[in-house]
Design a protein that fits this description.
Blueprint: H1 6-31, E1 37-39, E2 46-48, H2 49-65, E3 70-73, E4 87-95, H3 97-102, E5 108-115, E6 118-126, E7 131-136, E8 140-143, E9 146-148, E10 160-163, H4 165-169, H5 175-181, E11 184-186, H6 191-199, E12 205-210, H7 212-224, E13 228-231, E14 243-248, H8 250-261
Parallel strand pairs: 3-4, 10-11, 10-12
Antiparallel strand pairs: 1-2, 4-5, 5-6, 6-7, 7-8, 8-9, 12-14, 13-14
């Protein structure tokens, strides 16, 4: 893997932050206007004109900034890489489209850069509050300009766990037992806001079925803060496929794997 200098890391980070600043303004303006809403796989899987517009904008910027890179993005304007060789960017233009459309809250814009399958930088923008959680192993993790530090290593029974509502409802992957064993449980309905709560120590863990654009940025930031990221069986995530993702403190991760296996 080609090693990026601290200057190059800083340049990439600041460039993406400029993109996100522009997208935040456009997304907030569009949210209060008429939205063109369609369904994808089912009635709960929504896509809006803002999802598509944001993705086209981000992908255009990436192709100009890093022309040899490949892009994995949700709405079909990216590439379909068969390996993680070289620069691979992940783009989720509106994470939590249902929340965006119905709640006007708890949604995010997410971008991540991996080089030769190694996490380099991630960005999760809390659009409504205009906070970008960003960074990576070479620079640490920040909420805008405020450095974040590793959260307390609490066990599952000491904190709140965030879970996929649909899979909790049907008792899949041991989620029902995980919810019962936690101090409390919540369903947010979006990956980015859920990752943010774990990064900030507001939850000890989060698990859901996700595509790579859902977890790529969160994995960069979580691992940088010493959190454990794996699939529900404790294995490394496949960056080019869907996974049952688990991010948690070390102790909560151990507790959740034990419950899932039992």
């Amino acid at each position: 893997m080609s090693t990026l200098s601290p200057f190059e890391i800083q340049e990439i980070d600041q460039t993406v932050l400029m993109w996100l600043d522009e997208l935040q303004k456009a997304t907030m303006a569009a949210m209060n206007q008429h939205l063109d809403v369609a369904t994808k796989h089912d009635a709960r899987d929504l896509v809006t004109n803002v999802d598509k517009s944001n993705e086209q904008t981000i992908n255009k910027y990436i192709r100009k900034f890093d022309p040899d890179a490949q892009i994995v993005s949700e709405e079909g304007f990216g590439d379909k890489p068969i390996s993680m060789a070289g620069h691979v960017w992940f783009v989720d233009p509106i994470d939590g489209t249902m929340n965006f459309y119905k709640q006007h809250d708890d949604f995010a814009i997410m971008i991540a850069l991996y080089i030769d399958n190694q996490p380099i930088l991630g960005w999760i923008m809390d659009v409504v509050n205009n906070i970008v959680y960003h960074g990576g192993p070479q620079m640490g993790v920040f909420a805008n300009q405020l450095r974040l530090y590793p959260p307390e290593n609490d066990a599952l029974n000491q904190g709140i766990v965030l879970l996929s509502g649909a899979r909790l409802l049907y008792g899949m992957f041991g989620y029902d037992e995980i919810a019962k064993s936690a101090l409390g449980y919540r369903v947010i309905g979006a990956a980015g806001p859920s990752f943010i709560r774990v990064l900030r120590g507001q939850a000890v863990g989060y698990s859901s079925k996700m595509m790579s654009w859902d977890f790529a940025a969160g994995q960069v930031l979580a691992k940088t803060l010493g959190l454990i990221v794996s699939d529900i069986d404790g294995k490394q995530l496949d960056m080019l496929s869907s996974n049952i993702v688990l991010v948690a403190t070390n102790r909560a991760h151990r507790d959740i794997l034990a419950l899932h296996r039992s």
